[in-house]
């Protein structure tokens, strides 16, 4: 994670873009890139079409997911968030919200279990 963050920061800093990367604009960019992931699947109605587009546009999906990850790394760095630790903590929280004996095979929200 650290090496990837360093690469992203070097790319940004070489271009003097930090001046544009406040928390609000990074959050906005992250969401915009995430919607580009969603756009790849827009208007696909059945699972076969969804699976097909995922295969046909795999590189486009990879590019958009990389953009989302890039903005996530920048935001976490700038706000002093350890993403690895944050993910571990979130998994622990979700494990408590969604115990296996209640959540396995269910699509219900934790408040409905």
How would you describe this protein?
- It is built from six helices and no strands.
- By secondary structure, it is an all-alpha fold.
**What is the CATH architecture assignment?**
Orthogonal Bundle
**Rounded radius of gyration (Å):** 18 Å
* N- and C-termini, Cα separation: 35 Å
CATH class: Mainly Alpha
| Number of strand elements | 0
What portion of residues belong to β-strands?
under 5%
Kindly identify the CATH topology: Helix Hairpins
Number of helices: 6
What structural class do you assign from the helix and strand content?
mainly alpha
Could you name the CATH homologous superfamily?
MazG-like
Number of domains: 1
**Overall pLDDT level:** 95
Q: Write down the secondary-structure element order.
A: HHHHHH
Overall morphology:
flat
Reported for the largest beta sheet, the result is: none
Q: Unreliable stretches, pLDDT < 50, 5 or more residues? A: none
What is the helix content? Answer: over 70%
